[in-house]
Amino acid sequence: MAIQSNPRVIYPTRRPTPQETRKHTAFEDLQALFSGSLFVSICMTMFAQAGLLTGSTAGLAFVLHYATGWSFSLIYFVINIPFYWFAWKYIGREFTLKTFISVALLSLITFIAPRYLHIDYLHPAFAAIAGGFLMGTGVLFLARHKSSLGGATIISLYAQEKWGMKAGNVQMVIDCIVVLLALWIVPFDKVLWSILAAVIMGSFLAINHRPGRYKGH
């Protein structure tokens, strides 16, 4: 006699464990903000040495740095100030404060890093590929701990939360536009490598940063 399964039996889905849903501790937030800023600062150092660009306010800071010779760290810190108002009004105080800390850390590390990190030879292709993944990883660390590096990252995270758009895709479009605007000051081949880095970073975020995938708060 065949054994029939009971169609009324409902198999419950697994509930998240307390470890999966618990709020991040202050130490966890601090290590994420520092490590994320550190990863991005290494990327920025590589880009500066290879003559590449990135998007968002960091890309604008690079353009001004190349055009004027002013400190990238100082330009980047100042140019992000208007975005704090947007973050405070539309995203929240915690996100804004953590973003301010992350931007300050990145500005400080990129100012100090050239004294301790110098690569004798760096091909733009390697800088674009490795830098794209490094930046994507750093931004992912920050996003999962309710922080960002200002500028387009704030806009892309807001678009994801507000309209369900993938933050990585929004970031990729903005970054590519900013990089293309630099054609008047950066050699064409460096712009192409910079676009590759922006695509790699945006794709990495689109794959790994999705609403509901990460349960930490």
SSE layout and pairing:
Elements: H1 18-21, H2 26-50, H3 56-68, H4 72-79, H5 81-90, H6 93-112, H7 124-143, H8 152-163, H9 167-180, H10 188-208
Helix pairs in contact: 2-6, 2-7, 3-4, 4-6, 5-6, 7-10, 8-9, 9-10
Main location: membrane
Membrane topology: Multi-pass membrane protein
Protein name: YitT family protein
Features:
68% helix; mainly alpha; globular; 0% strand; transmembrane helix; 10 helices; disordered N terminus; YitT; 217 residues
Alpha-carbon Rg, integer: 20 Å
N-to-C series of helices and strands: HHHHHHHHHH
Query: Largest sheet at a glance?
Result: none
Number of domains: 1
Query: How does the helix and strand content classify structurally?
Result: mainly alpha
Give the mean pLDDT. 82
Global shape: globular
Percent of residues in helices? 55-70%
| End-to-end gap | 52 Å
Proportion of strand residues: under 5%
| Poorly predicted sequence stretches spanning 5 or more consecutive residues | 1-13
Report the strand count: 0
The helix count comes to 10
How would you summarize this macromolecular structure in one to three sentences?
This protein is 68% helix and 0% strand. It is mainly alpha-helical.
Describe this structure in words.
It is a single chain. With 217 residues, the chain is mainly α. It has one domain (26-208). Helices cover 68% and strands 0% of the residues. It has ten helices and no strands. The radius of gyration is 20 Å and the shape is globular. Residues 1-13 have low confidence and may be disordered.
